[in-house]
Amino acid sequence: MSRHQLLPTLLLQIQKIHTTGQHLKSKTGAEHRWLQRHFRDPFVKRAKERNYRCRSAFKLLEIDDKHHLFRPGLHVLDCGSAPGAWAQVAVERVNAAGSGEWMLVCNLL
Length: 109
Known about the structure:
109 residues; mainly alpha; 7% strand; transferase
């Protein structure tokens, strides 16, 4: 399978990871209640709006606002980066998408 054929397959697999309302029928009572709480959580909704991978991004934003950890031009190493929301915040705050800055993210599965 060529690299160009593999990418759409991987994207489809990634999309299947997220649980949506249509899959709630196969869940137990406790799982159903947890998912309902999860979908009503305001931070989950904000994370989806801002395209963060998970709601924990807001924890790092709050820490950075209080302690000023990140500055433009800073180099960042994120170890144990799954699911990646903190890496998203760090890239935004240090402007790693610009020139000269970089960020290294690693995760052992």
